[in-house]
């Protein structure tokens, strides 16, 4: 299991200040970084890979988002969007696409959504790419209806489970991980402040990271990733450096 961080904290600066952001993230000690295609795009692959190589940082995966309803209403367009990201990562050391979907308002055919995602997940696998579904809390609403639909109807899909959002959705993170092993090779780490949807820096919230990291080490493959995702708050490299030091301490000593 490798440890990474998420460039989403720096928003569009990953595009406008690419080298400075890559250099700063490399100095945190993490092995890799996840980058969002909505900020960086998919048109400057060699430039990005060159900078990552220069600073000895891996691309753990690339994120792509979209409306979940588009998997029914605009299937061709959203499929092409995901496959463009798959093309970007397919010959990298970590061919991971991280897919998320927005909250669905009103009734929707969850089975059809899952089946259409499955078509693209299968195409990704044939390219040598894992399509990892990144959840929020709404996948676990209505007794985890959307999560269950994806698990049952998209067998080629992996789960890039965000453990903080699983918890916010009312479920035990490691119990959910255990339901879809071995389709989990990528997770996001965050620390809930308490009940609700507010998150704090790792080690400042309610998660028992000693137990959590011990559990992840038993289920994630050697090339799997645990990626710390800070979305809000100060865009400070020091936050990620402290998160890496915290995780190292937890994994070495259990404290």
UniProtKB/TrEMBL annotation:
It comes from the Bacteria. Keywords: Isomerase. GO terms for molecular function: isomerase activity. Pfam families: AP_endonuc_2. Residues 25-247 form the Xylose isomerase-like TIM barrel domain. The keyword Isomerase applies. PANTHER family: HYDROXYPYRUVATE ISOMERASE (PTHR12110), INOSOSE DEHYDRATASE (PTHR12110:SF41). This is Sugar phosphate isomerase/epimerase. The lineage of its organism: Bacteria, Bacillati, Bacillota, Hydrogenispora.
């Amino acid at each position: 299991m490798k440890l990474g961080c998420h460039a989403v904290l720096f928003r569009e600066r990953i595009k406008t200040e690419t080298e400075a952001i890559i250099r700063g993230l490399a100095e945190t000690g993490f092995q890799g970084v996840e980058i969002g295609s909505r900020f960086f795009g998919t048109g400057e692959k060699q430039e990005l890979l060159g900078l990552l190589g220069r600073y000895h940082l891996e691309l753990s995966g690339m994120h792509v988002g979209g409306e979940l309803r588009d998997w029914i209403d605009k299937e061709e367009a959203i499929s092409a969007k995901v496959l463009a990201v798959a093309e970007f990562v397919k010959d990298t050391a970590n061919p991971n696409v991280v897919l998320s979907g927005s909250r669905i308002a009103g009734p929707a055919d969850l089975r059809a959504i899952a089946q259409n995602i499955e078509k693209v997940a299968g195409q990704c696998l044939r390219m040598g790419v894992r399509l990892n579904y990144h959840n929020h809390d709404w996948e676990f609403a209505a007794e985890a209806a959307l999560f269950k639909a994806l698990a049952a109807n998209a067998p080629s899909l992996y789960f890039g489970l965000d453990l903080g959002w699983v918890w916010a959705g009312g479920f035990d993170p490691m119990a959910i991980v255990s339901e879809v092993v071995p389709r989990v090779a990528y997770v996001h780490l965050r620390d809930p402040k308490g009940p609700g949807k507010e998150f704090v820096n790792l080690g400042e919230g309610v998660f028992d990271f000693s137990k959590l990291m011990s559990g992840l080490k038993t289920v994630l493959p050697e090339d799997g990733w645990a990626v710390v995702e800070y979305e809000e708050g100060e865009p400070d490299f020091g936050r990620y450096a402290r998160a890496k030091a915290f995780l190292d301490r937890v994994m070495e000593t259990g404290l």
